[in-house]
Specification:
nine-stranded mixed beta sheet; binds pyridoxal-5'-phosphate; disordered N terminus; 35% helix; six-stranded antiparallel beta sheet; 25% strand; D-amino Acid Aminotransferase, Chain A, domain 2
Length: 354
């Protein structure tokens, strides 16, 4: 009997294979399956399987953290604020004098195409964090430094919801590390630079206090700036407060929260705040692309507010869900294991109903 399979656009007829033919067919089939199961990465103009996306050891990004990046996420497999993230990437490129060789529209188009090519790998409750990374490129082994073309990579990470799911119900514990946020006089905080050592050391300090702790970094004057990967908000007398722009990354989530709060009629003010202000705040929360809004439980062991999330944080989460058309808390909790997941769902439903 002859059976036809459609593979890579070619019809392969089943008949008695010779040993060599069978081996070749096997390789082709394995290659095809790998292509379907493996995420693709955009690297310098081509879409290649993740395992084959290689960057030189002479790359400035590897040797000096000489690069910039941005991260957009999908909600329900749809990109969110991609243009705003890509614009921020281009502002970081301008600041660092890196010529990426792509127009902003081309970068956006490549990001969307990559999403299209990888989307079939997402489970129903999954979403991607889409990284756009540009380094200054490969150092010539001889000759002029800082010449050559940039390395441009875009890749999709499946969001690890388990990492932050519990925070929606239990709240995050923050700790002020001794490492201060690099002041903008030394390196512009608004630029998203691949060298994250400042934030990484702060994270180690916090995790050594408790593996579940997140660092809340102070600026050089002792005012709160941001965490390793989130902007920070506190609620004082019903007003949402957040550190001034000068010492923080201009977060896209931060900006979106301010506009949601405006629509809800809640005032947002920027100012200088110290841990003292947070200890007596009614609520506090973090804001970042993947988890969106993270309720905070304590700072340096001092409990904040009466419930998790506080009433204003809860209103913001509900408005956020409407905006992105995904229930972010249910999505994250659905990634926890059986009994724990059911327990957290119950607590969350109770909190929503209260
Ligand atoms: C240092 C820092 N601050 C704030 C943020 C939040 O920015 P966004 O809301 O654009 O993700 C991030 C995001 O990774 C970050 O790395």
């Amino acid at each position: 009997m002859i059976k036809a399979h459609h593979l890579t656009g070619i019809f392969i007829f089943r008949y008695r294979f010779s040993h060599t033919e069978a081996h070749r067919f096997n390789l082709l089939f394995q290659e095809e399956t790998k292509m379907m199961d493996e995420k693709l990465v955009y690297l310098n103009g081509s879409f290649v399987p993740e395992s084959e996306a290689k960057v030189s050891v002479l790359d400035y990004g590897f040797n000096a953290g000489d690069g910039v990046y941005d991260v957009t996420r999908t909600f329900g497999h749809r990109p969110f604020k991609l243009r705003e993230h890509t614009q921020r990437l281009y502002r970081s490129l301008t600041y660092t004098r890196i010529e990426c060789g792509l127009l902003i529209d081309e970068m956006e188009k490549a990001t969307l195409e990559l999403l299209d090519r990888n989307k079939h790998l997402l489970g129903e409750n999954d979403d991607f964090a889409m990284w756009q990374v540009v380094s200054r490129g490969v150092r010539p082994s001889s000759g002029k430094r800082l010449s050559g073309s940039a390395t441009v990579a875009i890749y999709c990470l499946t969001i690890n919801f388990r990492e932050f799911a519990r925070y929606y119900v239990e709240g995050a514990m923050l700790v002020v590390p001794s490492t201060r946020r690099i002041p903008p006089q030394c390196l512009e905080s608004k630029a998203k630079i691949t060298n994250k050592m400042n934030h990484i050391i702060a994270t180690f300090e916090a995790k050594q206090v408790d593996p579940n702790c997140i660092p809340l970094m102070l600026d050089i004057d002792g005012n709160i700036s941001e965490s390793n990967a989130h902007n920070f908000f506190l609620v004082l007398n019903g007003t949402i407060c957040t550190p001034i722009k000068k010492n923080v990354l201009g977060g896209i989530t931060r900006e979106t929260i301010s506009s949601i709060a405006g629509e809800l009629g809640i005032e947002v003010v920027e100012g200088e705040f110290t841990p003292y202000d947070v200890y007596s705040a009614e609520e506090a929360f973090l804001a970042s692309t993947s988890p969106s809004i993270v309720p905070v439980k304590s700072l340096n062991g001092v409990g904040i507010g009466k419930e998790i999330p506080g009433p204003i944080t809860l209103r913001l989460i509900e408005a956020w869900n409407k905006l992105v058309k995904v229930d972010i808390v249910r999505q994250a909790l659905s990634h926890l294991d059986g009994q724990e997941r059911e327990q957290f769902f119950k607590v969350w439903e109770k909190r929503q109903a209260a």
